[in-house]
Specification:
By secondary structure, the protein is of the alpha+beta class. The protein has three domains: 60 residues; 93 residues, Immunoglobulins (Immunoglobulin-like, Sandwich); 101 residues, Immunoglobulin-like (Sandwich), CATH 2.60.40. The chain is built from two helices and 17 strands. Strands 1, 2, 3 and 7 form a four-stranded antiparallel sheet that branches. Strands 4, 5, 6 and 8 form a four-stranded antiparallel sheet that branches. It is rod-shaped and about 155 Å long. Keywords: Membrane, Transmembrane, Transmembrane helix.
Length: 279
């Protein structure tokens, strides 16, 4: 018969008395490693999701930078000025016509310090003229007294010969505070000594500079329009245009225009040239 030694009996007794405790310890160890492995797995999932998010963000940023290239170009390269169609109409001088068109600076951060241009009318190139334009502003250019008659079939164009750009901010561009009263538009009938009647057109308005700077030279373009069509134009100058002083502008044409014509007055004041500013 097999006999158990005292050591084996002691070991068996210890196992019987400590079996529940050992099982509890094994359960604790198993739970520890289970939690450790589960935490490691969750960490891997978290890192994967984070890397995926970063990768998607980088891809989106690259895509947005590509799509926003036009936005970036606003700062590094100006867009060309937009020139409208040329309108022609009878001049106040018999046998001549005037031509006009709209010029727009579409740039938000670029001003035009000098734009030199030439009208080409019926194949003839006329003398060079210059204008200036603030960011996102437009004006009308007019050439007066061209010999000829109105002809819709003629191809008239404007050739830009030189542009001087300056990158700027809106706050860096001096704004004028010139107020123009509601223009008075009149058709006046006249009769000469021999009894011959005629009609002239007169436009009268008041101009006042409410800003803090005066200007040595200020021009005002007076247009008569029916809808969007220019039917007549005049230019008046005030030199100098002093601060807080009211001036009267009065122009007339030697013929009558429709009572429905609307008056548009465009100030042409060079605020970019320091020599034109009266401090």
């Amino acid at each position: 018969m097999y006999e158990l030694g005292s050591k084996k009996l002691q070991l068996g007794y210890w196992w019987v008395t400590h079996r529940q405790g050992m099982r509890f310890i094994l359960l604790i160890v198993w739970l520890f490693f289970d939690i450790l492995l589960t935490g490691f797995a969750l960490l891997q999932v978290t890192l994967y999701v984070r890397e995926l998010f970063i990768s998607n963000k980088i891809t989106a940023d690259i895509t947005n930078n590509t799509l926003n290239y036009r936005e970036v170009r606003k700062f590094i390269e100006p867009q060309k000025p937009v020139i409208g169609s040329i309108q022609s109409f009878l001049s106040d001088v018999p046998g001549k016509i005037d031509v006009a068109t709209k010029v727009e600076n579409p740039n938000e951060f670029w001003r035009i310090d000098k734009l030199s241009y030439q009208f080409i009318i019926a194949g003839k190139i006329f003398e060079e003229e210059t204008i200036f334009l603030k960011p996102q502003k437009s004006t009308v250019i007019v050439h007066f007294g061209i010999p000829g008659v109105l002809d819709e079939n003629l191809k008239n164009t404007v050739k830009i010969t030189e542009i001087e750009w300056k990158n700027t901010k809106k706050l860096e561009t001096l704004d004028t505070e010139v107020t123009i009263s509601e223009p008075e538009y009149k058709r006046i009938k006249l009769e000469d000594a021999s009894g011959i009647q005629s009609t002239i057109t007169q436009v009268k308005t008041q101009v006042k500079n409410k800003g803090i700077y005066g200007f040595w030279d200020a021009a005002f373009l007076i247009l008569l329009r029916i809808d969007e069509e220019i039917i007549a134009a005049k230019k008046a100058r005030i030199s100098p245009l002093k601060v807080d002083t009211e001036y009267t502008i009065e122009v007339q044409w030697n013929r009558g225009f429709a009572p429905s014509a609307e008056v548009q007055i465009i100030p042409v004041i060079n605020t970019f040239d320091p020599e034109n500013i009266i401090l």
